Amino acid sequence: MKKVVKEYFIITLGVWFIACGINFFLVPHNLAAGGLSGLAMVINNYVPALNVGIIMIIGDIFFFIIGFIFIGKSFGIKTIYSSLMLSTTISILQWLVPLSQPISQDILISLIFGILLSAFGMAIVFNHGAATGGTDIPAKILNKYFHIEIGKGLLIIDFIVTMMALVAFGPTTGLYAILGVIMNGYVIDFIIDGFNIIKRVEIISRKSNEVQKFILNELERSATIYRAVGAYDQNEKDVIVTVMGKKEFLKLRSFLKTNDPEAFIITHNVHEVLGEGFNSIIE
After folding, report:
1. 28-61: pLDDT as tens digits
2. What is the pLDDT of residue 242?
3. Which domains does the chain show, CATH number per domain?
């Protein structure tokens, strides 16, 4: 139960980052950088009585109905929660903190901060097995019926939204929106990679047994032992190979510094590890 509460708290935190990026930086400059939020900005331009948050709530409900009809019950509770929470949060922010003018008059600065905040929030949400709904659903429909990859489907939909923004807000704002779509994809991937980096560690130590016990008992990780021969002295040595998180690696390095400062260590950054103790191979 505690794990579930923590997970939903982190997802909620991610949603607030997205909402702040959209509400305080993208919306004031009409930077419709794809997605349901971008579509909501375009509609808001023609129907000012409806704020962006309300339009997103209506859009979420519409897309969920379409999704249930064409895809089936494949939406996770987390996705439904995060998508409705995002549109509700934006609506609350627009009510609590109405902006009479943009925080910064510089459209590029606003684009950068808006994309950084929203991409960071999206990375948090995606990293915890949820999504922000909206235009993800049409992308899944394109994938199911036309065999278009989801990434390409999202790009098509985001491109359509930015073209609508170009018509609604003019070529300069529209081109900035296209730049925002490109930036968003790269930043999300970069942040998610940073969250999920795992260390692959190779250790040659004179105290091999002690190192193995530390990895097994203190770090609660496993390891693979290879027998190798040193080219210089022709002596047999154990090569301990293991994978672990960044915090665990710091503990291991501290242990080796104290117990065998002459140990030889090679580390690699690994972006994905599947199997026991890590992510499951089965999605």
Report:
1. 998 887 788 888 999 999 998 888 888 888 988 8
2. 93
3. 2-195 (no CATH), 198-270 (3.30.70.120)
Check residue 267 and give its pLDDT. 93
Alpha carbon separation from 283 to 8, 26, 83 (Å, rounded): 20, 34, 21
Which of these, 17, 38, 28, lies nearest to 98 by C-alpha position? Answer: 28
pTM of the model: 0.74
Give the pLDDT confidence of 174-206 residue by residue, as tens digits: 889 888 888 887 887 788 777 778 889 999 998
Specify burial of residue 6 (Cβ count, 10 A radius: 0-12, 13-18, 19+).
exposed
Tell me what pLDDT residue 20 has. Answer: 94
